[in-house]
Design a protein that fits this description.
about 45% helix, alpha/beta
């Protein structure tokens, strides 16, 4: 450490860069080793490390900015007696501007405003203290501050590496929109982390390691303070280093990491912090900017053809309208509807789909008494995407779910149709409904939102950071449904469970898997137990015989695979149970999650005007079968044994997916299928953009 780049005024900057690159490379290696059967070739391995280094360098250029500014502007001129009045006037003027003017609006972010005021006040106080201290003390102070800064940055590097490890184990992906959501909902997420992992031990270990590394490299810290460098030279170097992030930002492209057909390799080629920033900035992707398109009139023509079924009639010749009247020959059934969307219920958890762990004994039994949909695929990988599909019956749009976007009120929905028929519509959630913007979305779309706050304190049997145990949610639901029945109106209640979520804890003594094990199998079996308990109690209610019970997953427990959209990561079950009205049947029709709403309305034989993209599966011509699966950027269209995937930037791919394993073989594009795929996704983007999907 006595020679070379670590023996000059900017020693700590080079050190931080090297440490960041080393931690990033080691993290990439650790993630690679922990990836199950990645199938990465030698060429892909070389590519992921080379491209990964470019992303790592770009992030490192941002990490060093605070050190560059400190070492560039650090000087003793401001401590001369002749300069003191000007410095004091500068700080005082800043505080006056902040405290007594509205030059910097405090209402925009009160927290940021207060932090800025405190920062300037503390910096002013430190300056006054150092002004009266000798030069050697100032050197000691600067060294201490720089040492503390290095320790903090190293700690954050290591913390990020550990966080990436746990995120990878959960999603087999670098940071994405899920990580952005986690940053927003800190209470639930931090609580979830503290209940799932030994946080205290991890943090303590990282602090000790950070201090040890900082002590090991203490000489570059001292060199950065003590070794002189003329202001002109350090200005030239500092400006060059400050320009580097901007140059790298504009030169580096996010799509560079999509260099292969192996999604594990592509994800490993990225940098977690870079991917986080990209996801944060791309909350909504403009379909017309990032995806291949058709003329709008062509897209809608294709879509209208796909939506044309025997009991459906378009009400307008407007080429951009999908409004149509849905009719049935049978009389309407004003049955109640209870829709239970189950957190993370993969199809293969059930014996009916090949599950061997016996973790859904009640649902397996109920499947033999219900309509069991065997080829249903979820729209996405998050709860909000499932809620979007179930309530709005629209294909997934690139970026964040509509549930999380602004201006998402008064949309055409399952609830709006049922309200027009005199139904009471409600959304019940076991957690606090502000999470994932559920309260705003459902409340803005005419639902009465009821969450855990409606349960009197002391009445719940168990709770964790996500909410009350499912049995307590269902107890609340029974009370609400009894009230609905007493009011004399038909009701629609959408109930969202929470227990099948890390940390996978639930009340003891309910099932044969102790909650102390904190494994998904236990959480799934507990949710199965809670649904059984709910329906057994519902059997004794006056409204039971006139109610349609729909049990469907919001998404799978995981969607990782060596291909971009593994179909097995989207295969979910649905049971529709109404013993007085429906005979047991296996429905083997290929079904999209957006088909659930019109299928429910079809079972009720309701006549209504529809803007849904989904179709009534039980009255669907065989040639209309298709499904939609997606990530935040990859838009999949599954039809006739083929999977078309649209990706940024204007990329189209087609595969023959293996529905059993999730693997897929690339095949040449089929013009008809790609046109249909584009038409669906482009049309919903157009309708939302032009605010044509309102109720």
């Amino acid at each position: 450490m006595s020679k070379g780049i670590f023996r000059n005024r900017f020693s700590i900057i080079w050190l931080v860069t090297v440490l960041f690159l080393a931690v990033s490379v080691l993290t990439r290696i650790a993630l690679l080793i922990s990836t199950p059967a990645p199938g990465i070739t030698a060429a892909q391995l070389t590519g992921l490390f080379f491209i990964g280094l470019l992303y790592d360098l770009s992030v490192a250029a941002f990490v060093i900015i605070p050190f560059v500014l400190q070492l560039w502007l650090q000087n003793d001129v401001v401590y001369r007696k002749s300069m003191a009045p000007f410095v004091c006037l500068f700080f005082t003027g800043l505080l006056v501007l902040l405290l007594f003017t509205n030059l910097i609006p405090r209402d925009y972010s009160p927290e940021v405003y207060r932090a800025l005021v405190w920062y300037i006040a503390i910096r002013f106080a430190i300056y006054l203290c150092l002004f009266f201290m000798p030069y050697r003390f100032r050197l000691y102070w600067r060294t201490t501050v720089l040492f503390a800064g290095l320790s903090l940055v190293v700690f954050l590097m290591l913390l990020n590496a550990v966080s990436e490890w746990f995120f990878w184990q959960e999603f087999y992906s670098r940071y994405n929109f899920i990580a952005v959501d986690y940053l927003v909902y800190t209470t639930e997420v931090l609580g979830n982390i503290s209940e799932s992992y030994p946080v205290t031990a991890i943090i303590t270990t990282l602090i000790v390691l950070s201090l040890l590394i900082a002590v090991l490299f203490r000489r570059p810290v001292r060199n950065s303070v003590q070794l002189p460098l003329p202001f002109a030279k350090r200005s030239l170097l500092a400006i060059s280093l400050l320009l580097a992030p901007l140059l790298l930002y504009y030169a580096l492209q996010e799509q560079w990491r999509h260099f292969s057909r192996n999604e594990y390799a592509n994800s490993l080629a990225g940098n977690g912090l870079y991917e986080f920033a990209t996801a944060f900035n791309q909350n909504e992707l403009d379909f017309y900017k990032f995806y291949q398109t058709l003329p709008d009139v062509t897209a809608f023509k294709v879509l209208r053809q796909q939506l044309q079924v025997p009991n459906s009639h378009f009400v307008s010749n407007d080429p951009y309208s999908i409004e149509r009247d849905i009719t049935y020959a049978e009389p309407e059934r004003k049955l109640n509807v209870v829709l239970i969307s189950v957190e993370s219920l993969s199809a293969d958890f059930m014996q009916a789909f090949g599950g061997t762990k016996n973790i859904t004994p009640y649902l397996d039994s109920l499947a033999q008494q219900s309509l069991l949909f065997t080829q249903l695929y979820s729209s996405g990988t998050r709860t909000v995407r499932g809620l979007e599909a179930l309530s709005l019956s629209i294909p997934p749009t690139p970026g964040q779910s509509i549930v999380k976007r602004p201006h998402n009120a008064h949309l055409f929905s399952l609830g709006s149709v049922l309200r027009s028929k005199g139904y009471t519509t409600q959304y019940l959630y076991g957690g606090y409904s502000y999470f994932d913007n559920m309260k705003t979305f459902f409340g803005g779309n005419g639902y009465t939102v009821i969450d855990r706050s409606a349960i009197p304190k002391g009445r719940e049997h168990y709770q964790n950071i996500w909410g009350v145990a499912d049995e307590d949610l269902f107890t609340l639901a029974l009370h609400v449904l009894d009230g609905n029945n007493a009011a004399g109106k038909p009701f629609f209640a959408h109930i969202m469970t929470v227990s099948n979520h890390r940390p996978f804890t639930y009340p003891a003594g309910r099932i044969d898997i102790p909650p102390s094990m904190q494994i998904r199998e236990g959480a799934v079996k507990y949710t199965d137990y809670a649904i059984n308990r709910f329906l057994q109690e519902a059997r004794h209610k006056k409204w039971f015989d006139s109610t349609l019970f729909v049990i469907v997953a919001d998404h799978c427990a995981g969607s990782a695979g060596s291909v971009e959209l593994p179909v097995t990561g989207y295969h979910i079950p649905m049971l529709i149970y109404a013993p007085k009205w429906l005979a047991p049947q296996r429905v083997n029709t290929l079904t999209a999650q957006i088909d659930v709403a019109p299928t429910i309305l079809g079972l009720l034989k309701l006549r209504y005007r529809s803007k849904f993209f989904g179709l009534d599966v039980l009255n669907m011509p065989p040639e209309k079968q298709r499904a939609f699966i997606s990530t935040y950027q990859g838009l999949g269209y599954l039809r006739k044994g083929r999977l078309v995937i649209q990706s940024p930037v204007r990329k189209l791919s087609e595969y023959v997916p293996d529905l059993a394993t999730g693997d897929a073989a690339a095949v040449p594009l089929n013009d008809t299928l790609t046109t249909e795929a584009i038409a669906y996704y482009q049309s919903i983007s157009w309708l939302l953009k032009h605010k044509k999907q309102s109720e």
